[in-house]
User: Fold these one by one.
Assistant:
Number 1:
Amino acid sequence: MGEAVKQRSLVFAVNGHRYELLNVDDPSITLLEFLRSQTPFKSVKLGCGEGGCGACIVLLSKYDPVLDQVEDSAVSSCLTLLCSVDGCSITTAEGVGNSKDGFHPIQQRFAGFHASQCGFCTPGMCVSLFSALVNADKTNRPEPRPGFSKLTVSEAEKAIAGNLCRCTGYRPIADACKSFAADVDMEDLGLNSFWKKGESDEAKLSRLPSYNHSNASSKFPEFLKKHIKAGASLASQGYHWYSPASLEQLQSLLQENEANDGTSMKIIVGNTGMGYYKEQERYDKYIDLKYILELSIIRKDQTGIEIGAAVTISKAIEAMKEENEGDFHLESKTVFQKIAAHMEKIASGFVRNSGSIGGNLMMAQRKHFPSDIATILLPVGTIMNIVTGRKLEKLTLEEFLGRPPLDSKTILLSIKIPCWGSRRDISSETDTKLLFETYRAAPRPLGNALPYLNAAFLAEVSFCRNSTGVRLNNCQLAFGGYGTRRPIRARKVEEFLTGKLISVGVLYEATKVLGTIVIPEDGTSHPTYRTSLAVGYLFEFLSPLIDTLAEISDGFLNGILLKDSKTEPSCDEFGKNQLPTLLSSGEQVIQLSEEYHPVGKPITKAGAAIQASGEAVYVDDIPSPRNCLHGAFVYSTEPLARVKGIKFKPSSSTVGVTALMTVKDIPGKNVGSKSIFGEEPLYADEIAQCVGDRIAFVVADTQKHADLAANIAVVDYDKENLEPPILSVEEAVDRCSFFELPPSLYPLQFGDFSKGMDAADHQILSAQIKLGSQYYFYMETQTALAVPDEDNCIVVYSSNQFPEFTQDTIAQCLGLPGHNVRVVTRRIGGGFGGKAVKAVSVATACALAAYKLQRPVRIYMNRKTDMIMAGGRHPMKITYSVGFKTNGKITALKLDILMDAGIYSDVSLVIPGMMLGALKKYDWGALSFDVKVCKTNLPSRSAMRAPGDLQGSFIAEAIIEDVASTLSIEVDSVRNVNLHTYNSLDFFYKSSAGEPMEYTLPAIWDKLATSSSFYQRTEMLKEFNRCNKWRKRGISRVPIVHEVSVRATPGKVSILRDGSIVVEVGGIELGQGLWTKVKQMTAYALSLVQCGGTGELSKKVRVIQADTLSLIQGGMTAASTTSESSCEAVRLCCNVLVERLTSLKEKLLEQMKTIEWETLIFQAYLNSVNLSASSYYVPDSSSTHYLNYGVAVSEVEVNLLTGGTTTLRTDILYDCGQSLNPAVDLGQIEGAYVQGMGFFMLEEYPTNTNGLVIANGTWTYKIPTVDTIPKQFNVEILNSGHHKNRVLSSKASGEPPLLLAVSVHCATRAAIKEARRQLLSWSGLDRDVSNSTFQLQVPATMPVVKELCGLDCIQRFLQWTMGRK
């Protein structure tokens, strides 16, 4: 063993800087932890800790001395262990480019294409693209045009497929990426700051930040090339890290470990399994397999491909995709390429670059990981080479998976995928073909999501030359990932099919047998859906072989043309050929105004370039002060229980723990957050009121130690003599548990409901709708840093939308006067309402710990805890009765609304008014309602982007859809007949309606119908649906009327001696472009002084962080209007300054002909002119409330076999008034819309029976990704002219467009309706039988859609086909 344990230091580079560590105290430390705590490079962000978001991506480069080449790959630094990067070079976003050395074209283009909003995800995006560029430009592809890379458009889009963004809606990010692609059509690139629409490609290219692909490669430091990598060992404090260089060394280590019984050991390659299994414990020994040659081989010969167990999934894909394999038969190549194509949908590129084939299969074998790889390798006869001690075994994959979990002595050496070829007998009357296909049903088409089921089928079939039949000679059918311990072969189905001529009857019998085999284990979600997927995929595989079903086939079977295909070419049944290949394209139409220059210009967002380089400082990027401690919450896992005590598990380590803060440590009032409606305690006092209720705060020397200690804290609960918890709105009603809604907040009723119902021709009575919650999924979780200051003061840095109330809360909690507490907020990595009231308690907990311990304390909440405590959007149960005429005109609507507020009031009492505001978008005739705000033992719900408005808009559409279904008329005509006239608008919205000319909705409604070709496409869809049995399309046009209120906001503008300008506002920069608009407004308002040099004033303006002791009464940044009110506050300041400067300027002009800005300011200083002005903008009654209007048309396609919904196209027309910055507003519209798509189509936020959130990470909670947004995404911002009561005639854009996403849900409903009509016809019922009334729940996930389309639709179709014979 002497050679294997030779100890030496760890050497690597970060952005060219050499790092040498003589020992590593904790081998479980990740590269992310090291970079963030031990280097100045903070661009790597912790978004999830699971490899699921891409915020922490770095480029990892390794040198191969044999080939004298560098291998570059993007990896998740949150999963990569520090000790595994020995000899590697790491490049972060700062290393790609920065403000000091110059920004890289990637960063410049991200800024110029408006592809960064909050900016937290942007560095990871940039590194992902950089990695793709570096690797594409190493290929031997043809030289690209000057200014472009060798990347293709498709590769450019997919480069960021695994990166999550909650702000932008992805379209501008995709455009920034595509701008580097060799095959890009410049016309397809969207709005940017480089060129104007209509310019030539040459002009466009000349304005793009230049890119030279020959300089693209990452720079590998020379000093690392001399570094010997293999066989090293690191040791520290009883922990060991081994990097054996041979199989013998590895076996020796394993034997030694067995002898030392009780020593814990972890074998790693990429450590990606940690992302799934969340291993927290430290091991005594770590063994890195990357340097063992036998485990890293890839061998190809005529018998197949052998892949070493330590080979990464990405390298395995590469090996199987290579074209130049003359040894392989064409059919074998097809098998390998299809396996590779499926593997490209596993996890994301940066996980595949680290994760190994062997690691994936060993997790499947030992821990029953739902592995796609195991399933797709099962039917192709994969052989597993394993070694135990000196014994080498060859097992089939099925035998390997079927064994009891292998012990630590057993090593998987390699896998062998054999070559496959069909037999051909020239003398026989048959042609034999080999068919292979893999399948995967998952919420995201490009991966980064576990499947509901995966499958792979291999079959040999014979086409009879003299007859029409196809015989299935043999087949292997594998299914996995559906809630079973391991993938299975469906042997009964295989045996049944073998040797048979494939017919409708045979296929029907096969599906019946399959339904008895693929049965998920108890406790698996959507079990019948998963079984139906198996049936659907078998049908998709075999149905093209049946002549009778030729009309339902596209005529192609895995690339082999079937004889006598009668299919129309436009009818491509299984969706293989017709969907757009690009993930997203679109057109953006904006109208520019010069009236208030530079206001109205689509200038680049302030700080976008430093966000892209990772130099923008967020709270957790602030360097830790000396002696800084870190905190983590201990929260209740019981919904209602007495807390008797807290202790740590006796067998667990509490390394680094300094203190445990509880309610007993509070010197002042037990208050953790507050709103105008009430307070929430910081810590549970005797009784924990809900799951997620804060019980204590662990303080330790590192964030990792604090999190570990919080995880092992054991709370002693007692439920004796306590009432059962209230866990639903129904239980709240039974127990009369409500928050009282003050009369001033109770929305008005409209008209006489009884008269309206009497006037109706038809009625729907007591129909129900249920809506669930939604999590914010800001990329930056809750975070704060509290630093004790002199004279009993404290400074708190908080990621916070509500610094003013945070200051008040901390002061009360600590028993201090407010002036002793300073809360500072610079920027937020995404908020969406979740950083308002919910952030206050996080900052207060840090402040309390820092105050008591007299040491700085910070927290960066882990994603799981954040998701459990967040609360999110308000769930609701709605019961409605509606009366309507035969033409669809609604005469009366009554609603009974039960809203789940959770345990504390938070801002829940304003939600009913907001909900009814959005619901009033239609003329209901008479509107009556009863709203109950239910108090339950669940985490308190809070404001989330468009709180209440989103639910209200959906309720309105659900009712309209129900009316149309009941009447069997087109839903668009029902919407049309119920749109407001100005008189009805004025009746429902009173003073908010404004002047008649401001009511632009009818004009927008008609204009979008024309520009989107709505009516023509509606007719085309009918033809498509007639022609296609297994894909149905739907289209929907939806309006919004969204009421907003403008709140009072402070501002301060100061002009410095050199003419530069510093601005403070109450509003917080969340990514919504508030600072950018404020800069533009400052430049415009000060330019009215009319002297030389004021044309470029925006470059002289800096907006600085919010500071509660510098600018008071900042209020909450929320409700879409803070940007405009901050702009107006600044304009008031500037008006004062202009007035002061104008009188000086006039005096100076008597002495000189012209005067420049700098001269004027210098003279103002000499003349003691006050160059600082503060204001507090308070809107008058005519400006407080106003309405926003927009319309969206969305078209979707539903796959009836899987329930998968693809949004083919969305067109939005939105009235922004006179936009303060069209680029910023466009980003808000697109980003809000995609976030709304998440609510309506993807995001499930389920809990267990106690109310504890179980979707608590990126594995289980799915926000939209670049592959789930509309394929074509067209947005037009309408400049609707002057609104005299608005800020420079502008209108809000942050929240209203979110409501338009309901159009996707409604279009999906339309497609499902077509599927159900078809299903009825197969059951022998008339297509027009009125069974069309159904509820499509939110979110309309794949299982939900499939169930409505018919879980048994395949069987019913086959029965119908047999009956027709």
Number 2:
Amino acid sequence: MTEAAVGGEERDLAFGLPPRFVAVARLGEGAEGGTWTALDADAGGRRVALKRVPPERAAQVRQAFRVLRRVSSPHLPAALELLHETGGGAWLVTGWIDGAPLRAGPAPAAEALAEAIAVAHALRAIHEAGTHHGDVSPGNVLAGEGGVVLTDFGQVGCLGCGTPGFLAPEALAGGGGPAADVFALGCLLCFRLFGAAPWSRPEALVDALRRGERAVDARLAELAEGKAAPDELLALLRRLLALDGARRLVDLRLVLARLQAALLTCRAGHGPSDMVSEAGPTWWLPARWPYAGTSLAPALALLLPAPRARLIAVAGPPGSGRARVVEELVATLQAQAEGPPARLCPAERLGAALAVPAAGWIEAWIAGAEEAVFGLPEAPPWPGDLAEESGDEEHVARRRAAVLAAAAAMARTTLVVPVAPEVGAALARAGAEAAGRGEPPIAVLELRPWSADELMQALQPVLDPPEEREGWASALRAATGGWPGATIEAIEACARASLSRPTPEGIAGASATARGALDAGRARLVLEAAWTAEGREAAVATGAGLGAAHLFAPGGVPLGWALAAARRTFGPRVRELARERLAELGDAPGRDEAGGRAGHGEEDMSRDAGQSRAGDPASGREAHVAEDMPRSAGRGMAAESALDASEREGHVVEDMSDRSCENGAGGRGGSGPEEHALGDMSPGGRRGVSLALAVDAESPAAVARWLAACPETGGAWERDPALPRLLERIDAGLPDAARAKLAAALLRAGQAGRALALAEAGGPRCGLIAARALEQTGRAGEALARLDALLDDPELAAELRATAVGLRWRALTDLGRASEAVLEARRLAEPAAAEETGLKGQASLAEATGDVGHVPEDMLEAALASTGPGAAEAWLWAALAAIYGGAEGRAEGWLERADERLGTASGYPGLQARIEQVRGNLAHLRGQLGLAEAAYGRAASAFERAGEAIGRTLLAANLAALAIVSGELGRGLEYGRQALRGYLALGRVQALPELAENLVQLLVRAGAQAEAVRLSVLLAQTLGDTSSSLARARLGRVQAELVWGERLRGRSSDAAVAHAFAAAADELQRAGAARDASEAWLRAAAAARRCGQPTRAAELLAAAEQGIDAGDEELRVGAALERLLAAAASGAAGELARAGQLLAELPRSTDLAARGRLELAWQYDQVLHAILSPSDPRRPALARRAAHTWEALMSKIPDLDKPGARAALLAESGDRAALAALLSDLPESTGEAASEPTPAEPERRAGDPGHLLRMYRRLVREDDLGRLLAQVVDAAMELCDAERGAIAVLPAPTRSGPTEPTLIARELAGGPGGTFSRSVLDRVIAEGAPILSVDAITDDRFGQSRSISHLNLRSVLAVPLVHRGALLGALYVDHRLRRGAWGEADLARLEEFAELAALAIAHRGAVAALAERGRELAALLEERELEVRGLREAARTPERRGYGGMVGGTGAIQAVFRLVDRLADSDVPVVIYGESGTGKELVARAIHDGGPRRARPFVAENCGAIPETLLESVLFGHARGAFTGAQRATPGLFEAADGGTLFLDEIGEMSPAMQTKLLRVLQEGEVRRVGDTAVRKIDVRVIAASNRDLDAMVAAGQFRKDLLYRVRVVKVELPPLRARTEDLPLLIEHFLGKYDRGRRLTVSASAVRALARYAWPGNIRELENEVQRWVALCEARVEPDDLSPAIREAPAAGTPDPDDLRLRPRVERLERELIDRALQTAGGNQTRAATLLGLSRFGLQKKLRRLESGGDDED
């Protein structure tokens, strides 16, 4: 459904709305307050509500979004997304609510009460989240079939707002809060019960305030007059509408209980309509479950404030809740004011979202330019080879993880993707390795099941009564394993099924039944929509009326889950229904099919398919697998990139059957399954049958007819949703042609393993596909055996026989036996030549080669001579074998034969593309680079016509290889990276070895060693046990190139290089890649020569020469040059002469340069110059030619890559003395020009402002001074074409006096250098003026300088570095061999550059100074940290009545304070739970002091501190003479506390006998002293405390259950100090105020952080002792060293409170811990710490300021 088709003008009005939303319409007044409704295409057409938020209200809506996401109630809307606009506005996306606003009553009491219960439940969830709604009114409550929902959260947390008539008195005064919500609830109940709100106008409410609470009674009596309102309901309304907020009933748990009691009375025993019946539990299922489970902090730390990771993997099995984790991560980012843009997006729509249409999800991720976070809600489908799941699971996971890691390194967009646990584990290892290499991090969230406590916590808001939760939690955990996704699904299923008793079996059954169950009517509608176009039209027309609109995407296409549910609804009857529908369409299944799956036979299938034999040409020619060709490293023949990539493309050559074309589906334009009607599918003209219908009918004939009408080369039909189901249940009777077409489709998708399994059971057509699949998976030997067996069949059709012969030659080439393939091809192509060689007249091809079974020769010749794609493909593979088998001269002729056999047919663009590709490879091999590029261009065009996505990628791989030999480093890197992105995007990992070999060569030459290492790791991870020997050999070559890269960086030796390349050459030789092996041996020989191993070098050179083909002139030139150098080093004149004669027979350097082989041409001239004697007159000419070639070569290399490329070329020469001699032979500037300038030279000499700007940008990005100065020197040398350079930077003035300047020197090769004229630098610094000398040796200014003469300097150029009039240093370049190298223009250009360099150096100094100043300010801010945080916490802490020494501002302690408020006014017994030292007695005293007993005694006693024999006397008293020593009667503590409160601490320590006596006292309210008979009445409130679990003691028989019920009516749990470390500053201030009377002590922020990490086993009592210790021992400031050893040395306190689900505190704790560790490791140096953390210095300082100031707690 297009945007233009739906939405119309309404969509234009919703400006800024993302295009994924279609069918946009404005909602009516009142419903959602003027918002919009739309269908979300990213969510399968789900209907949503959208509210546009202007920028000025964005903060409020973000708060509402956060609240909605962390609360749990069925009466609140589901907050789905918060989409930000560029202008600061946003769109709030919530679930669609099908309802209308509440209208004025009078409504039935039961209806009004049920609505009030729903609103109260919603408000309770909001209040427990720590905020309030702010605008409870009828317009914001929607009621419909789905229930009652409280909406419009625009005023969440706001004060002084609301709707007139529903405003609380305090809201009129600018206040509000939870109590105001309760008041509005009372008004809403009156509105529905009586038809009007109590006070519809504010002035009426003001008047009621003047009259007091009597006004409430009067107004309620007036409203209820004439209406039957129960007294208990009116009493509840009085409490809700109390004008004094202190008297209002604000505890919504009590409000809900009283509302439910009233409702039960009204309904005469029936529960609320939205609850399960009273026979079972009451479920309050939320529209969206709050998140709980695995911590998201590690991932968020990498995404906030800006993404630093490009991949967040959510690893877990199905049912683990992966989608929920992805959604929560995205929503958390959307709720941040300054977070990155984030959104959910299905994998199939990622391309559209990132403006890369028609791209797969990996391709879109890599190519996307948007720096945002995209979350995939479901595990995406793996493309190509990655979809293969057969074989070693660990290897499959490793390959997938390697591709994800490689894609993340290239992407700018961050992807959050669900993966299997095995992939997650492999990604974690890959991420650790990447971090070790200094690469961007990869986060892996490994999901875990819910613990028992977490499951109980999840049930708390959704299940009543509470006593049933434990049983349900246990059963759910047993049924689901505790995995969050499966558990939530099971809970919802149990609620829908009204399951009354929790058993694992019952829960599992309910889950299975409810998993997408549909009623029969809706299920039939869904099936019809999947089967026919008419069904889809019916779904559009009647879906909404039947309540089934949610089952379909736009256009009536059924959603996947709905289709699966419909099939489950009918079960086995689906086949019956499908066959009936098939019969109605005139395509009834055959007699045997109707009788059952087992009834049909092969004969019937053949008859249905056209009664033709599988191999009969009349039934359609077999699909021909046409692959790309391998190429030699550095030679341009895209080895596996052509060979394997096209294999995975499964390119079945486009030989469509005539029948297919006649039926209207042939060619590229045939309609596909997206239309669900392929036109006439049979000669009878029956209406189109969709694949879904054919599969559901289990009709092989219908499937075969559907496939026959689909194009052979693929297309839209391969994306039909029913195709995966067909592949899972292939019928044995499916004809061979149809089976082969399906197998070819799998090959095109890169799934060779599945293609092989499918083709195994087929006939000859499938046999060819199976052979191709075997080759693709590295089993060429098995493929060869299968092909030989096919060729033995005398009945095999000629077209298939030609294809089989070609594939046989391809298999021989893969096995390294290309020469055998060439011999066979010659035998069949050139009978006369074969007769001369004695091959003619033999009975079979087997006698010629000894490998093939007995195949009549005339049959083979006839097959290969025929016209068609089979013969064309055979000669294509023959040409490839010729290239590999050293018969390049025959390859061109055989390619011409392939063209002739293909003829003018227009239906085979894929095959034509591969012919052109091999032609390009051949031209590349011959050094005809222009012809090669033209052929590659024709191949690209043919690939586009064929619609093969792999084609452009293959072309890029070929052009990258071409760039290696042409020396175009920039183009090569561009094409190579493009090809790598393409292979990863398509999942073609088996094509990586060849590309990696070429791209790594380019990367090493450009100096990009880190990227080369990443590519090597990717290749190693993707290769498995089934990979071919050639692929493994390529990996060896890649690793050898990495050793060479390390050698260029000075971290390895030429000996190591020689060993690595020799080992790689051996592997390549064994794999049959003879030319690649020769090239590697040549590289090894050169390295051995350079490191002084002549014998080893000679052996390697001999091995190389043995494998070089006679026609490979360029490789022979390389070998001849190496032999010439070896002979010159040995001093053997005869050897030198023979080597020179050999070289003379080969192309000269001018010929090589004309072919584009500039690098080889330069080496040619440089080697000849090195071996000639100094007096040889040819040397100057050679030097000029070499210089000209060098300039041409350098002009093709990007400026940033030139230092690396120059270093690589010079290192390969290995002889610096020879290079210096070559430079000395160049003419001086006063004489003849050294060389004709290249086209780039005039521009370079004139100076390019853009070039200077690029240099400056590169410099200003560098933070390290040493690296910055080295880059300045390199850039100056490049600018002036100098041999060496140096820079001196004066130190900044310090208090300690002057220090030595910083010196950096560099040489031509890009490495460090130590020899330059220090006197020139000193002179420039002293005089502040530039120096230009055309011949320094004869320059009078340097007559006294020994360094000038010692270094034999000719040209010298030096300029001062000046910034704003201040001299910073000097920049110097020289050239020892060229006189007059520079003039005034060069001086002016270097001065311009020096200004930019000085600016970059000054910028770096300013940044360093700012960082230092930032550290000073941070230290200053640290001194104020405690004071500010203490004041903030004090402001957050509300005033409490008589709480004495209790202090705290965290949510946990504030909840205790609120509970104390409610308990103070009642006399209910209370038990206080808490660890030792948490302040249990303080809480008990606060309860006492806040209640009516405050004037009476408060008596406390520790039951565990008194011996059992004395405890009875202490509590109850004793009479005179009751025991020895009882001289007088003594009252007990109960009597002493009469009228007041008795606090019994550690009540769990009482003996059973004492418990019995205490129970009697509590029950009777009277006490009898020990030894006395008189009974005394007492009035005592008992508050008990324990640090033990009394429930566990009851279970163990250690505590009386009846006593527990008597003393514990209400339980108060005190949090330990380690769970409320945010209160530490407040507590420290409190204790300092108590003990440090002079207020002389302050506490540093670092000390507070150390205290926060401590576990505090002694809780607040231990903290108090610690503060007293400071007062005694510290002078003015408490630092970490002043803390007690136990605190100072203790590890972190552990995990935070599991009940605290707020993200911000957890993220801040993690950030604090990581920053502290980094600062410790860096010794306090913020720059080093920022590097360790992956931040800039500014980013770290910004984080420190935010953390130290406390930040904004938005949660």
